Amino acid sequence: MAEIEEQLKELPDSPGVYLMKNKSREIIYVGKAKSLRNRVRSYFRKGNHTYKNTILIRHIDDFNYIVTDTEVEAYILEANLIKKYNPKFNIRLKDDKSYPYLKITTQDDFPRIFKTRIVKKDGNKYFGPYADVDAIYKTIDLLKDIFKLRTCKKEIIAGKPESRPCLNFHINKCSGPCIGEISKEEYRRDIELIADFLAGRQGNLIKLVTEKMEETAANQEYEKAAFYRDGRKALKEMARQQKIITGDDGNRDVMAIATEPESDTACAQILIVRHGRLIGQDYILLEGAADTEEEELLSSFITQYYTQNQDIPEEILTYQRPVNQNKLKEFLSSQKGFKVRLHYPEKGEKKRLTDMARRNAEQNLKRSLIKKRYQQEKSAKELSQLQEYLELENKPFHIEGFDISNIQGTDTVASLVVFKHGEPAKDQYRRFKIKTVSGPDDFASMKEVIKRRYSRILEEGRKLPDLILIDGGKGQLSVAVEVLDKLGLAQLDIIGLAKREEEVFLPDRYEPVILPVNSPGLHLLQRVRDEAHRFAVNYHRKLRSRRLTHSMLDQIPGVGPSRRKSLLEHFGSLAEIRSASIEKLTEVSGISDATAEKIYNYLQEHVKPG
Questions:
Q1: Which helix (H) or strand (E) holds 299?
Q2: What InterPro entries is this protein classified in (predicted)?
């Protein structure tokens, strides 16, 4: 403690973020402070700490901190660090996901519309977020069918038509902007109608589709008329679902928190209102919520939610009054770029909205806790069966699974997946490039990855798994056992699961163990094995694709390693490079007009689209 006492004396009286660490040097808590000196010192003073903080303090072995210029910067940094480290004692968004949006590339002469999870300040239009991904795809398909919007990624410049269109034009799925069949002005009028519809103003689009239906019917184009009739019906259904919920034309998010006594989980509910219409809703579970007031949970949730979600409306309504409300307003306004109103209504229409959010939060929390309870019961049964059938000393709460992937001996990789209490812990998955083995040698590859994994765990003093699962039979299992013995880990339980007969091999048995086909224990082992296989194959495909891409780019005259790197960093993939115009290629650092022309001509001749 003498070292910590010295560090406490040097703490600055400045805003910032502090990171608490345990003996294993894991970050277990991230906090923000108006004064780092006062806030961090408070953890090491005797006083009336909450139960949660008392447990936290017992685990603190060291701390670090980052000084910021303002409290608002501390808010943003805290949320980013919580997302990065997922500390045990923080309130965490359990459903840590990026939200899908619809993007319209309004910076293009002929814009595209597509789903994205990345929102940038690039001058294009974004609509969302949406909780229902299926609804997004249906919306895109419908709008593309009605307006025959282009789906290709290539750059199309107004006034510079190409010699021939793609297949979509010939099958009447595209209006042909690339060959000048539709003008820039006409195409963009359709895009503006779509943007209005997505923003909640549906009338003009429905009116246009109705006019097209009537026009084609009058011209006895009955097939087209039926298409527009069906499209109008779908648009009206979408508009009906976007319920008018306020008397004004405002944009706002409505939020509420629900908690359950003696539960570590809380639920945050969001109602998304745009132009007075309820266009969507979502709920997010919060972990680490025990012994925390709802007002504090709400404040923490708002910070994390709007650090990930860039679509911040002009007003946010809350069922609870969040702590640090003024600082939250500053944070939200800094993220948005102009003033955001954070309002806690106590009566009227807005209070009705927050009450609705609260009711939904309570229902979603109850349903989630029921699912969680059933999942826990299912996992307990699976783990008990495995302990019994495999004669394990302890229940395998922590399982680690390995698989090797290669094709004809190239780009050999290994995967590690981790299951905790019967569920995948994806943040703990790891991928390995095999370094010491040449050719298709699964045994030697398995030997390398087991040694690398558990040597590192021993060096870092981290917790060992309860059970190791190898995808394979006695051969793969034997080499893994050999490595563990040399590392002094012979006590670890390890098994091999062979695919063909689903036989389970144990180190000290000649004959395999056959688990009942319908047993929950076998199903858990299969999930671990299949997940390890999926993860390995995906990584292998990624490396192989990258190698082939590098090989193809290296064959282009004038493109060396540095230019290849610049091209990939700028465009992201070979397909995007191929679809780029010569003008776009010259925007890449180090690419001259002459080199851009060489790249363009080579890829058009040698690389097939798609």
A1: helix 294-308
A2: GIY-YIG_endonuc, GIY-YIG_endonuc_sf, GIY-YIG_UvrC_Cho, Hlx-hairpin-Hlx_DNA-bd_motif, RuvA_2-like, UVR_dom, UVR_dom_sf, UvrABC_protein_C
Per-residue pLDDT tens digits for 192-203: 888 888 776 777
Rounded distance between C-alpha atoms, residue 605 and residue 602, angstroms: 5
**CA–CA dist 300, 323 (Å, integer):** 9
Element (H, E) at 467: strand 467-471
Please give the CATH superfamily to which domain 398-542 belongs. Answer: UvrC, RNAse H endonuclease domain (3.30.420.340)
CA atoms of 26 and 531, how far apart (whole Å): 26
Closest CA to 316 of 365, 369, 270: 270
CB-CB contact of 150 with 174 (8 Å): yes
Cα–Cα distance measured from residue 63 to residue 27, given in angstroms and rounded to the nearest whole number: 9
Q: What is the pTM of this model?
A: 0.59
Q: How far apart are CA 313 and CA 254, in angstroms?
A: 10
Alpha helices by DSSP H, listed for 462-519, are 474-486
Q: Find, among 506, 531, 508, the residue nearest to 401 by Cα.
A: 531
pLDDT at site 78 = 86
- Provide the CATH number for the domain formed by 252-367 in this structure: 3.30.420
Distance, CA of 519 to CA of 35 (rounded, Å): 56
Instruction: Say what percent of the chain tops pLDDT 90.
Output: 31
Q: Which residues contact 433 (CB under 8 A, 6 or more apart)?
A: 412, 413, 543
The CATH number for 2-90, chosen from 1.20.140.10, 3.40.1440.10, 3.40.190.10, 3.30.1540.10, is 3.40.1440.10
Query: Largest Cα–Cα distance in the chain?
Result: 90
Q: Which two tokens stand for residue 41?
A: 């010192």
Cβ proximity of 40 and 21 under 8 Å: no
Among 158-162, 285-289, 574-578, the least confident range: 574-578
The confidence score (pLDDT) of residue 351 equals 92
* Confidence tier at 551 by pLDDT (50, 70, 90): low
| Confidence at residue 410, expressed as pLDDT on a 0 to 100 scale | 62
